[in-house]
């Protein structure tokens, strides 16, 4: 089958997407590839919650499933390395777009920033166990705003503390991903988009050999 690509992603990649909102980013990739058999797309929400929160969720999920995507719900990035299904796999790309810990204050509040950093740190500490070591090694991609106060999340140092090495940073443009609709994800405006402004996709690789999967079958 002819390889197809969109920005950093190819149909030959095994791709894991976490923290999906209405699954429109996953669907954008699947449409570009003409298949989603190489993709696992996950959400923290249950399927029922998604139906309530996002008007396009059911349509997006249905199309993804028809393209062969594996869809998992109620996947927590803090524990995903031990997930019964994900633990059995390795990925060339692990993607988390615009992580957010929820709204408990203003984005500039110290406590709010601490919650965001806890979320991202937990993601890094789990994602590194799911990366492929073949073909030069898999990559973790996290897309994030690059203006204040979002720079206070200190994503590069969070990654470094997990022995992850920055291998690239590229400006993110929503226009490169037709059909992708970023979502607030929480509150009464959960189905509304938020202004992106300046943001980048940060790419990380493992800086050392990672132990095998942590999950133990009973």
How would you characterize the overall build of this protein?
Residues 16-184 form the 25S rRNA (uridine-N(3))-methyltransferase BMT5-like domain. It comes from Psophocarpus tetragonolobus. InterPro entries: BMT5-like (IPR019446). It holds the Pfam family BMT5-like. This is 25S rRNA (uridine-N(3))-methyltransferase BMT5-like domain-containing protein. This protein has five helices and nine strands. With 218 residues, the protein is of the alpha/beta class. It has a single domain (5-206), classed as 3-Layer(aba) Sandwich (Rossmann fold). The protein starts with a strand and ends in a 12-residue tail after the last strand. The relative contact order is 0.17. Residues 214-218 have low confidence and may be disordered.
Short description:
The protein has 218 residues and is α/β, with parallel strands linked by helices.
Fill in the keyword field for this structure.
9 strands, disordered C terminus, Rossmann fold, 7-stranded mixed beta sheet, two-stranded antiparallel sheet, 218 residues, alpha/beta
Number of helices: 5
Radius of gyration: 16 Å
The order of strands across the largest sheet is 5-4-3-6-7-9-8
The largest sheet, given as strand count, sense and whether it forms a barrel, is: 7 strands, mixed
The residue ranges in which pLDDT falls below 50 over 5 or more consecutive positions are: 214-218
CATH overall fold name: Rossmann fold
The CATH class is Alpha Beta
CATH architecture: 3-Layer(aba) Sandwich
> How far is the first residue's CA from the last residue's CA?
38 Å
- Beta strands, count: 9
Q: How many discrete domains?
A: 1
Structural class: alpha/beta
Classify the helix fraction into a percent range: 10-25%
